[in-house]
Task: structure prediction
Amino acid sequence: MSWNYRVVKTDQGFGVFEVYYDEAGRPNGTTKRPILDFYCEIPEDLLYELGLIKAAFEKPPLDLASFGARSDE
Result:
């Protein structure tokens, strides 16, 4: 299973979530909550994570209703 950060449309609006994909590359789940409330052990890790989050805005938003599942994370 692969994952990345994506902008996702939900009933509450848009948020950045971890999105999980099946073997065919189709989205099949997300984290329960948006990921922008997180900590890292060192500042460089924060910068790295922010780079991955920034990349989420380079792709079109996903609509949660189109695949619906959320993980327990």
